[in-house]
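hiii so um. not sure if this is the right channel but i have a protein structure encoded as tokens and i wanna go backwards to a sequence. like what aa goes where. can anyone help
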């Protein structure tokens, strides 16, 4: 849930047509379909998913026994025992389901082929667990947690990966006085519980002119529901971070709430936790848009929802320094974890880096997006690339051609790489760049 607009140069390319293929070969050699989870899907000019991404779909790390993401999922589910727990939805959804059902505006950057993975024009890999909100509400669930793998085209570094895992939580109530009185009773109970706990909460108004209730909602109901959301999540933050942070009377856990904007909630909030000397953004949340509930055909309801990234929290709780490690099959990683226990990860080695630069002129009248380059590198080199950085960009004053230079940091988490091995991989990257995007190497 809760995907924010990313204010980056990629917005300039929202209307840029897709101009990539799956393997760097000419379009005449491409297969006419993709086979995903046993089903065939035709490809078209929008297709931008790569073999490296397709290979991740069956793995479902959040369901693997003893895996840190599975342990974290189970820990959060145990905090909401009366909620329905869901974790088996297919990642393939329609753009309508991923965006339109949730009131995303037509020009939202998340719709762009530079931001999201498309199987074809009518099918994509979900970018957030909120893609299933309408579906779950429609089937009658009023309190639920949904965990799933989600997919977004992104840069390459130690905290970003094109596949990650989210948990969505939601709770809806009857929008009448009797129901709101029950919610107020729950609010009083949770407030008393927190008052006895080692936690300090920096709050923000439940509703305000800058974070308003929805026009169709009774402002009092919206305030009560927003308060219930905050209290419920404050208890979750205490459960997740209180023990690891060593929360005590002298050193209580600190949580703060910040006004936010999301297309599918209002009012909306972000939650931050003060951990190891700095504020860390943990999740987004808010009162569910009435349009979402109307689309799900559950009128007369009001409720809240939140979404959090499991990797982000697991990296904090387990002290895992690189997001690639979650995908490692190295026994030195896997053996450190036990089902149901949060333990501090012990790094087993830091292998040397090998930096390689590639400079090129972009094709005339075309723009090569950074995410296109990163996807190409991932598809060639896999997880032996630690990060990719754009280190130079300029436009020739006479030809108006754009020159780009990227620095690739090759470093395996499991072994030392030879210079010859890296040179061979770098040569494949250069060849793919020329064949797939028509660049001129400098």
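sure thing!! here u go:
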């Amino acid at each position: 849930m809760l995907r924010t607009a990313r204010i980056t140069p990629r917005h300039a390319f929202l209307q840029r047509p897709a101009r990539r293929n799956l393997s760097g070969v000419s379009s005449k050699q491409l297969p006419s379909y993709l086979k995903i989870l046993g089903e065939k899907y035709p490809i078209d000019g929008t297709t931008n998913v790569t073999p490296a991404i397709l290979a991740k779909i069956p793995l479902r790390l959040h369901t693997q026994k003893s895996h840190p993401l599975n342990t974290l999922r189970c820990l959060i589910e145990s905090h909401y025992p009366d909620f329905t727990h869901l974790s088996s939805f297919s990642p393939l959804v329609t753009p309508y389901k991923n965006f339109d059902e949730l009131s995303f505006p037509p020009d939202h950057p998340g719709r762009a082929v530079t931001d999201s993975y498309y199987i074809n024009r009518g099918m994509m890999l979900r970018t957030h667990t909120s893609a299933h909100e309408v579906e779950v509400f429609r089937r009658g669930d009023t309190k639920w947690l949904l965990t799933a793998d989600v997919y977004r085209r992104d840069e390459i570094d130690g905290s970003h990966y094109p596949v990650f895992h989210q948990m969505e939580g939601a709770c809806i109530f009857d929008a009448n006085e009797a129901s709101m009185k029950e919610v107020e009773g729950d609010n009083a109970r949770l407030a008393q519980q927190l008052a006895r706990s080692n936690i300090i909460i920096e709050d923000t108004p439940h509703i305000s002119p800058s974070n308003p209730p929805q026009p169709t909602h009774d402002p009092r109901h919206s305030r009560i529901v927003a308060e219930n959301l905050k209290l419920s999540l404050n208890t979750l933050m205490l459960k997740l971070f209180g023990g690891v942070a060593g929360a005590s009377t002298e050193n209580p856990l600190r949580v703060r709430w910040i006004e936010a904007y999301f297309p599918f909630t209002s009012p909306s909030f972000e939650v931050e936790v003060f951990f190891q000397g700095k504020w860390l953004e943990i999740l987004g949340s808010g009162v569910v848009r009435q349009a979402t509930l109307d689309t799900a055909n559950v009128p007369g309801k009001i409720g809240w929802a939140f979404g959090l990234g499991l990797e982000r929290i697991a990296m904090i709780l387990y002290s895992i320094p690189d997001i690639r490690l979650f995908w490692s099959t190295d026994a030195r990683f896997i053996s450190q974890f036990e089902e149901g226990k949060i333990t501090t990860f012990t790094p087993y080695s830091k292998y040397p880096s090998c930096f390689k630069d590639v400079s090129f002129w972009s094709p005339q009248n075309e723009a090569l997006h950074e995410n296109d380059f990163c996807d190409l590198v991932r598809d060639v080199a896999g997880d032996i690339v630690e990060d990719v950085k754009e280190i130079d960009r300029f436009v020739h004053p006479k030809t108006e051609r754009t020159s780009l230079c990227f620095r690739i940091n090759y470093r395996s988490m499991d072994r030392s790489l030879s210079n010859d091995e890296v040179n061979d991989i770098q040569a494949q990257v250069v060849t793919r760049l020329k064949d797939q995007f028509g660049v001129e190497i400098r």
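oh and The chain has a mean pLDDT of 90.
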